[in-house]
Amino acid sequence: MNSSERSADSPGTPIEYDTSYLNSLRELKFVGAIGTLALAWTLIYGGLKGYSSDPDAMDVILGMPSWVFWGIAVPWCVTSLATLFFALFILREDDDDLLEQEAQAQAEAEAQAEAASKEDVS
Fold it and tell me: Fewer CB atoms inside 10 Å of the end CB: C or N, the chain?
């Protein structure tokens, strides 16, 4: 039984999610977490260090003000490395052949159920 076919009569029936959906949900959580952490770090660190620093006594790292280096460049590099790690080692490719077979089996089951219901009516 597909989650979209669940009837209101069976609220206790567990929902069976498709593997493609579960993979995309896992990927969404990872990307959302990394992006949120990087954004929070950039805004908080940049807000605290960027506005409070004296322009005359500013530390410079690789030609950038230190708050730009630590608040923007470092999070950008860390998120890039995390994304690369995720793409190489965690990201999974969905088995499209398996998905097609499942869809075909479901369509055949629906056709058989429809044919059986027509036979019962006659």
Answer: C
